[in-house]
């Protein structure tokens, strides 16, 4: 999916959703203004401006015939709500000047978080954007999942190994569970608040699942992924809010597809390293799949993009499927090639639906 942790890319394109059973007319603008708008101010200052987030959410819809919008924000606003400082360093990405070094550092975190106070700017952006969309496409909210957020908070930024964060799981399992529980509690309130503000679907990004093996995933990821879905849906019912569809994306967790299909989510996002046919065989037929074109395929000539999209759609089939990239766009990717991807999805979808 066009996804979370490519900090300098066109983040608002992180999750372009395309249904193979839906098409609409293209809207266009004279130019694609996303990068220009994003470059005008500090990244997290942008995240805290509801008006700017709204504009950045709407811009791709003016350029591409997308079937949904995802609110412009970042998964690391949750650690900020817990009292941690996060800055976006040019050429490096998100950085925690004072990451968690030892178990005693957990005491520095806010143990109770009022999401309406700490993350109200996200809710305001969602409400404003929902009004501006005027019902043209659904609006999606999101959060990072506990393990992914924990890994950033301990590593202090991105990492190829996640060795510091994984060391906690081995050395301090009880403290790790305390931190993951704290994060899950905030995430539940945060996601419910997004629905109250107007979000019509929710996505949970466990972007760093692939750094764990099956046993650690079962111990430190899956219980929290399940709990978040169960608690969010229960709280939505309790608050008489719509029980919206929920999507989970656990990158590289191929070993856990069956478990994810039983975790309470309506949609399972897939990265590009698994064959659609294999995922279909392993996941229940009542679960929708989302994905999964390799983002680097967008570097290919437009004709090749079309061929790759056709193969992807044929692999997934026309039922219970949302066409998407398998992860994030990169900063140097051409909007014209993004457009070629979108157009190919719609063109081949129409053909496949006629042939059903």
From TrEMBL:
Reaction equations catalysed: uroporphyrinogen III + 4 H(+) = coproporphyrinogen III + 4 CO2; uroporphyrinogen I + 4 H(+) = coproporphyrinogen I + 4 CO2
Pfam families from the UniProt entry: URO-D
InterPro entries membership: UROD/MetE-like_sf, Uroporphyrinogen_deCO2ase_HemE, Uroporphyrinogen_deCOase
Residues spanning the signal sequence: none
CDD domains: URO-D
The Uroporphyrinogen decarboxylase (URO-D) domain, residue ranges: 140-156
Pathway in which the depicted protein is active: Porphyrin-containing compound metabolism; protoporphyrin-IX biosynthesis; coproporphyrinogen-III from 5-aminolevulinate: step 4/4
EC code(s) of this entry: 4.1.1.37
Keywords: Decarboxylase, Heme biosynthesis, Lyase, Porphyrin biosynthesis
NCBIfam families to which the protein is assigned, alphabetical: hemE (TIGR01464)
Its job: Catalyzes the sequential decarboxylation of the four acetate side chains of uroporphyrinogen to form coproporphyrinogen and participates in the fifth step in the heme biosynthetic pathway. Isomer I or isomer III of uroporphyrinogen may serve as substrate, but only coproporphyrinogen III can ultimately be converted to heme. In vitro also decarboxylates pentacarboxylate porphyrinogen I.
Protein family membership: Belongs to the uroporphyrinogen decarboxylase family.
Name of the protein in question: Uroporphyrinogen decarboxylase
């Amino acid at each position: 999916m066009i996804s979370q942790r490519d900090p300098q890319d066109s983040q608002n394109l992180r999750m372009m959703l395309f249904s193979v059973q839906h098409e609409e007319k293209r809207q266009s603008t004279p130019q694609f203004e996303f990068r220009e708008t994003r470059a005008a101010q500090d990244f997290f200052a942008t995240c805290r401006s509801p008006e700017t987030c709204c504009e950045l959410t709407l811009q791709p819809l003016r350029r591409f015939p997308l079937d949904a919008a995802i609110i412009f924000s970042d998964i690391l606003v949750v650690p900020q709500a817990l009292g941690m400082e996060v800055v976006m360093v040019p050429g490096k990405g998100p950085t925690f000047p004072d990451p968690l070094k030892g178990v005693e550092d957990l005491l520095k975190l806010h143990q109770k978080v009022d999401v309406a106070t700490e993350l109200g700017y996200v809710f305001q952006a969602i409400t404003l954007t929902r009004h501006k969309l005027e019902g043209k496409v659904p609006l999606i909210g999101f959060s990072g999942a506990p393990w992914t957020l924990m890994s950033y908070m301990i590593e202090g930024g991105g990492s190829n190994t996640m060795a510091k964060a994984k060391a906690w799981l081995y050395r301090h399992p009880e403290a790790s569970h305390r931190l993951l529980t704290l994060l899950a509690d905030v995430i539940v309130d945060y996601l419910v608040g997004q629905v109250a503000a107007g979000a019509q679907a929710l996505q949970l990004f466990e972007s760093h699942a692939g750094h764990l093996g099956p046993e650690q995933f079962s111990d430190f990821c899956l219980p929290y992924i399940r709990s978040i879905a169960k608690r969010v849906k229960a709280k939505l019912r309790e608050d008489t809010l719509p029980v919206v569809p929920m999507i989970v994306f656990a990158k590289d967790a191929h070993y856990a597809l069956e478990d994810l299909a039983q975790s309470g989510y309506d949609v399972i996002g897939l990265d590009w390293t698994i064959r659609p046919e294999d995922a279909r065989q392993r996941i229940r037929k009542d679960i929708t799949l989302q994905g999964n074109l390799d983002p680097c395929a967008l570097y290919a000539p437009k004709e090749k993009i079309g061929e790759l999209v056709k193969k992807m759609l044929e692999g997934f089939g026309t039922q219970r499927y949302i066409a998407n990239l398998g992860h994030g766009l990169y900063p140097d990717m051409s909007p014209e090639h993004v457009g070629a991807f979108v157009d190919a999805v719609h063109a081949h979808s129409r053909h496949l639906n006629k042939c059903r």
